[in-house]
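Exercise: predict the fold of this chain.
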Amino acid sequence: MTNEASQAFGAYAADYDEPRRRLVPVFDAFYGAVLDALRALPAPGGRLRVLDLGAGTGLLTGMVAQTFPAAEIVALDGSAEMLALARERLGDRAEYVVADLRDPDAVPAHPSYDAVVSALAIHHLEDADKRSLYARVLDALEPGGVFANAEQVLGETPEATAADLEWHRREAIARGTGDEEWAAALERFEHDRCATAAAQLAWLRELGFADVSCPFRMRRFAVLVGSRPRGDGR
């Protein structure tokens, strides 16, 4: 996240987890598609080294830890308050790093990880910063390693984006979200700098990712996946 978004979400940290399944109507399938991308990796005994970008309170980090008990996990977020809750959730199962996603040093410039994952964080960056981060992710992956980003995306037209937001509102209300909770969510959406799924998949291909795909998409929620080519020894 950016410093601005980190401050906003840090102030909300204690209340972040409880409404997740109301505010993310496709929560299980959405996060599950990230885990499926990691399951496809050739990792005997689940021995993976995983970086979670924008880990927040550790929701996705915890799922990775539970699914891959032998994994080494680094949880990175711009909010110390959010990461403190991740530490309460995971203890010494992860390493915790406070850093802005725009910081060039936040992601290693050499192969260090079998997988880099993210959930609902990178859309807070401007498009140029998203693309720069994706380039650094590619460098940080081992050959054959996978990047899986569970992201909030724009519709292909302004009309589609508006329809997707209305769908989101209806689905959240159907799951118990009240007016006050939705209004607070809309305030946080002001920090969003979303891009279309199609644009981001194109960036991944242009940067040199292989096997680029969108294995899950439901309106505003899409999982974007790519891997570092196996023969990429740079």
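Check your answer against the key: The mean pLDDT is 92.
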